[in-house]
Amino acid sequence: AQRLDLFTTQMSNANNHKIVVPNSKVLGDTILNLSGQRARRVEINFTVGYGEDLNAARRVLADVAEAHEKVLPDPAPWTGVTGLLDSAVQITLHAWVASGDWWQAQADLMQGGKEALDAADIEIPYSALI
């Protein structure tokens, strides 16, 4: 539910929390609307070991996204090496989905990506605490 009066704007977030914002902030600040577009991009960062085949890891993650029924074909899913971390290489997956499918698609792609990397024997390093 949304309501606009002389002094405040009232709205609900995704968890149905009521948010009351003074109109002075609404008129003076940036508003980020995550549900205003028909499609949203899922962005998930995975890490793989430095000794792994990065092209194979990227292909595994792209295949997971391409096979998911909620991922839109256009623009096509994208993967790329986006970070050289202390103990891992970061690979980012981008996939576009309908806005209403975003939460479930993100969870599915995260689980599917992890399981697919495991099945391909591609190491996902983790921090060892001593």
Condensed summary:
With 130 residues, the protein is an alpha+beta fold. It has helices at residues 23-28, 54-67, 102-119, and strands spanning 3-4, 8-12, 18-22, 39-48, 78-84, 89-98.
What do these coordinates show?
It is a single chain. This protein is of the alpha+beta class. It has helices spanning 23-28, 54-67, 102-119; strands at 3-4, 8-12, 18-22, 39-48, 78-84, 89-98. It has a 3-stranded antiparallel β-sheet with strand order 1-2-3. Strands 4-6-5 form a 3-stranded antiparallel β-sheet, with helices on one face. The longest helix is centred in the last third of the chain and has 18 residues, at 102-119. The model has no long low-confidence stretch (mean pLDDT 91).
What's the arrangement of secondary structure elements?
Layout: E1 3-4, E2 8-12, E3 18-22, H1 23-28, E4 39-48, H2 54-67, E5 78-84, E6 89-98, H3 102-119
Antiparallel strand pairs: 1-2, 2-3, 4-6, 5-6
Helix pairs in contact: 2-3
